[in-house]
């Protein structure tokens, strides 16, 4: 036998009390939200408005009496409350997406800066290593061969002094780049005596076993002396590693330009990498290098308004041609960009 539980009768007075309790609870909740520090004031304000609208709509529907007008007003207030919540949720989602996009952009910028810094460090180590090798060779020769004529010893000592000074400028340039965060800005080129710089670099590479055929021409060009020295050093180092132990280095006058050619007797540049030989990190599979030098050399030549190209292969070996202006042209600050 089943029993049926009759619902407790709710009179108008009790219904009013219940609805008043709901309103009071809504007001208390609103007060708590207003004083909450875990939510932004923007979100707290909208939550309070939505909560109060829902409470008033509920009170009007149950207490203020029946009728279509009352029901319509309660419905409008409920929809307003829902609309406030929807707009708030949309705004919060949009803000979250914008914040995420900013974080992603900042990460990309940080990664780009890190890549540039790593490239600068690798390029610096590349040039420092080659410079130190030349200094070491000259120092070892002076220490091992006590029978060197005085003039020969003085020339080697002068070579060491000049390369040490260039090494110090390289390190100072790097320190300046770290301080400014934008890279060192070199002074405008005052002009370079090609013979003076090429002679000491040719001597350095001859000490390390490279046969260099070179004849002074008495030419000058508009370039930073250290940049020009680095370009010639890279070309000779590239020829020493890949060129069969011999290289012809020459310069000629071509109207407003000085043209420097460096030709070796090696196997030449692999066709697979020929078109990308000046890109950073590009090298043949059998190359002992890192693929950095030629890209650095081209950038340095371009900074003084010139260009560096790989000549068409017409004989065994590879020929690199650098054109440098005789007079100051458009010059780009050495930012490593």
TrEMBL record:
Catalytic activity: ATP + protein L-histidine = ADP + protein N-phospho-L-histidine
Pfam families, per the entry: HATPase_c
Transmembrane parts of this sequence: 12-34, 41-61
GO biological process, one term: phosphorelay signal transduction system
Domain spans labelled Histidine kinase: 123-328
Protein name (Swiss-Prot/TrEMBL): histidine kinase
Source taxon at top rank: Bacteria
Record-level Gene Ontology MF annotations: protein histidine kinase activity
The protein's Enzyme Commission number: 2.7.13.3
Gene3D superfamilies listed in its UniProt record: Histidine kinase-like ATPase, C-terminal domain
Enzyme class: transferase
Organism: Nocardioides anomalus
Signal sequence, renumbered to the chain: none
InterPro entries: HATPase_C_sf (IPR036890), HATPase_dom (IPR003594), His_kinase_dom (IPR005467), Sensor_HK_Regulatory (IPR050736), Sig_transdc_His_kin-like_C (IPR004358)
SUPFAM superfamilies tied to this protein: ATPase domain of HSP90 chaperone/DNA topoisomerase II/histidine kinase
Keywords: Kinase, Membrane, Transferase, Transmembrane, Transmembrane helix, Two-component regulatory system
């Amino acid at each position: 036998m089943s029993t049926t539980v009759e619902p407790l009768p709710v009179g108008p007075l009790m219904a009013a009390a219940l609805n008043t309790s709901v309103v009071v609870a809504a007001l208390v909740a609103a007060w708590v939200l207003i004083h909450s520090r875990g939510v932004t004031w923007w979100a707290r304000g909208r939550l309070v408005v939505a909560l109060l609208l829902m409470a008033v709509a509920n009170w009007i529907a149950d207490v203020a009496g029946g009728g279509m007008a009352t029901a319509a007003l309660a419905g409008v207030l409920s929809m307003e409350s829902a609309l406030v919540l929807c707009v708030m949720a949309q705004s919060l989602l949009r803000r979250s997406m914008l914040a995420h996009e900013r974080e992603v952009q900042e990460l990309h910028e940080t990664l780009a800066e890190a890549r540039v810094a790593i490239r600068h460090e690798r390029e610096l180590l590349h040039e420092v290593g080659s410079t130190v090798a030349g200094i070491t060779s000259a120092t070892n020769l002076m220490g091992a061969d006590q029978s060197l004529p005085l003039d020969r010893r003085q020339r080697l000592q002068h070579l060491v002094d000049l390369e040490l000074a260039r090494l110090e400028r390289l390190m100072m340039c790097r320190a300046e780049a770290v301080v400014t965060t934008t890279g060192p800005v070199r002074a405008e080129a005052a002009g370079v005596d090609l013979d003076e710089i090429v002679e000491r670099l040719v001597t350095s590479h001859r000490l390390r076993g490279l046969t260099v055929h070179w004849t002074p021409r008495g030419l000058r060009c508009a370039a930073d002396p250290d940049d020009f020295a680095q370009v010639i050093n890279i070309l000779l180092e590239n020829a020493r590693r890949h060129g069969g132990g011999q290289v012809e280095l020459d310069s000629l006058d071509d109207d407003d330009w000085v043209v420097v050619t460096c030709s070796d007797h090696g196997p030449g540049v692999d066709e697979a990498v020929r078109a990308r030989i000046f890109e950073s990190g590009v090298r043949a599979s059998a190359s002992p290098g890192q693929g950095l030098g030629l890209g650095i050399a081209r950038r340095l030549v371009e900074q003084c308004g010139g260009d560096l190209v790989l000549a068409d292969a017409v004989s065994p070996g590879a020929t690199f041609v650098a054109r440098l202006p005789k007079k100051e042209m458009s010059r780009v600050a050495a930012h490593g960009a």
